[in-house]
Amino acid sequence: MKGVFNVNGVSVEASFHADETLLSVLRSHSHTEVKEGCNEGQCGACVVLLDGKLVNSCQVLAATAQDAEIVTIKGLGNLHEPHPIQRAFVDAGAVQCGFCTPGMVLAAYALLQKNADPSEMEIREALDGNLCRCTGYVKIVEAVDLAARRMRGHV
Amino acid sequence: MSELQWFFPDTIEEAVELIGRDGVIPHGGGTGILRGNLKKTRGLVDLSRLPLRYHRKRGDMVEIGACTTFADAAAYLWSLDRECILAKALGSAASTPLRNRITLGGSTSLFPVWSDLVGPLIALGAEVELTGTNPGLFPVVRYVDEKELRKGTLITGLRFRMDSWASFYYRETRTFADHPAFTLTLLCRKKGGRIAELRALVTGCTGRYRRLAQVEEALSGVELDSVDPREVVEAVDVGFAAKNFMSPDYLKYLVSVQVERGIAGLMGRQQ
Description:
The structure holds 2 protein chains of 2 kinds.
Chain A: E1 2-7, E2 10-15, H1 22-28, E3 47-50, E4 53-56, E5 69-71, H2 84-91, H3 101-114, H4 120-126, H5 138-151
Parallel strand pairs in A: 1-5
Antiparallel strand pairs in A: 1-2, 3-4, 3-5
Helix pairs in contact in A: 2-5
Chain B: E1 5-7, H1 12-19, E2 24-27, H2 31-35, E3 43-46, E4 55-58, E5 61-65, H3 70-80, H4 85-92, H5 96-99, H6 104-110, H7 118-124, E6 127-132, E7 136-139, H8 140-145, H9 147-150, E8 153-161, E9 166-172, E10 182-191, E11 194-205, E12 208-211, H10 213-219, H11 229-232, H12 248-266
Helix pairs in contact in B: 3-4
């Protein structure tokens, strides 16, 4: 199959198999910032925003994502211009091995788009699809809270 | 190269014609399909262009389109009634990114062992709207029980009466991200200091689901003050196949514990 995928505002024409997942298509077109973890929708390493909704790209068949707006972590910020959530993750010490971080940041972004002032429980619920095997989550939750406060202009 | 073919119909009629073909199945969110075996599938019919993503209330009836995601349905039902058992179940199913993808129609038609949907739907007396070979409205329990009803049909929506039930929902998981070994749904309606009606249903057991009829009978009409949740446990009659790390007896014990806790909670007692 051939299709057009809109990734981080850029249209990409791609060839892919009919049963290929969005994760596979993204990674084979240089979007290796989308991490491949469990491939079962359990770990959240591969999450992207699909038309604004947080989804596991390993659980999306690529054919259904054609013409949709896809945002990966690179669409939020980069080393030189990090998104406030990325900055907060660094400042709060929420990054260790970094494998889960793109998914965590995107999950936090999806939450803060809907709820600018989340409680700790709401943060934990929003991150329920993202596993981290390093930090124990405390610093990650603190980072999201810090990002929320900064984005509201309270810090 | 895969021989799998995709179809993107713009009308329900077109979709129905396509899924009537051999080896062609509907695609809602795709999460259930990806857990299955696509080798025998010749075609996938993407339903995203069809007008099946809606939720509305008409009188007492709530109607939800088949392509509505768990997340959207849960948020809508939550806005109507914080006690709604279906909102509780959908809101606790899977994880945030998966709830943004799993659809009510897909989960009803596949009824995976980890489903958080069908137990509450059956307990609520919900109906499924079908089009295709067997068009019309049918009780969800019939749709689950009768294989013939499902052949060549497409779920277009679900509906149920939004009654004022007190509710208890439990999903047995080892970790929050795990698939539930079973789910327990309890609905209770109280009137004049008595239990007017109780509905109790377990999924994940042998036979896929089981109505705890003896529990329902034991409590119906009983004065609230005289309900003893520990006695009710003796009426729990449910069987399980062995599952990972859990024997059938252990699973039945876990159901009994949750029935006791659920009934106590519905009676407003400390647990």
